[in-house]
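Many introductory courses stop at the sequence. We go one step further.
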Amino acid sequence: MKNPSLGFKGKRLLNLLVREIESGRFQKYQPKTFIPYSEVLMLLGMPDPEIYPGRRLQPEGLNELNEWTKVIPGIPRIAGLIVNKDTKAPSEGYPESHGFPAGADWNDWWLDQTAKATDFDWSPYLK
């Protein structure tokens, strides 16, 4: 089976995250260095980035990128680098979308995935 391609909005978000990785922004296992939903909306040029940022980012490529990483073998879950600015963690929908039921301990898995994402060679998937 051929791997599905990433659509425009998902690719735009992937490019944004890879630029942030290349800038050295993210520190492995340090969620305080991850990028808030609202900042991503601002960088995408969306108005009022503070209003329901997580929900508003979903149709702007977040859901698409998240789903794409689940079906491409060996791709780390890069969407986990986008977090709520207050909790410094992804929304509750993120772990559930990766098979962790509500209340499950997913923190170590999430941080391992984000560490892998910062080391991964994304170049074949960009542009």
